[in-house]
Amino acid sequence: MLSAFSEIHWVAVVAGTLAFAVLGAAYFLAIVPKQYLYVTGRENLPKEEQAAPGTLMMFGPIFFALITVIADDVLIRALGITSIAEAVLLGLLVAIGFLVPQTFTIAINPLFPRPIQYGLLNAPYFLVANVIACMLLVIIPW
Predict the structure, then answer these.
(1) Which residue, 41, 35, 33, is CA-closest to 110?
(2) pLDDT digits over 28-78, tens only?
(3) By CB distance 3.0 to 4.6 Å, which of 53, 83, 120, 124 could disulfide with 57?
(4) pLDDT number for residue 51
(5) Which string of DSSP letters, residue by residue, matches 66-83?
């Protein structure tokens, strides 16, 4: 398993991370921005408090997507996954088994007024982004 770390396919990892970033920007900034404000309880705040996200909000998710994609790549190498179908299954397993439940877990606290809706809004992003990243990890040639 540790040898898989030495085989990380960095070009594909960067591509998978960019997929997370592009999909996240499209999803949260263009497709569901109003719904996101609603599920986080910020829909009635003044516009200046709903302003564009700062540096941490922009680059933090990209950094953590990078960590997720590295872990995906290590699993792909360790498990010997070579087909797109297997990559899709791994992407679904990691998303359904880890990313989506963690999203709900984070939301279940007093700071999230609508935790179930928050989880349901975020789950499709993590599911799709992780499947795409896993596919890229398999299809991008060395």
Answers:
(1) 41
(2) 999 999 999 999 998 888 877 766 667 888 899 999 999 999 999 999 999
(3) 53
(4) 66
(5) HHHHHHHHHHHHHHT--S
**Average pLDDT in the chain:** 93
Evaluate whether 142 touches 127 at the Cβ level (below 8 Å): no
81 neighbors 139 (Cβ within 8 angstroms): no
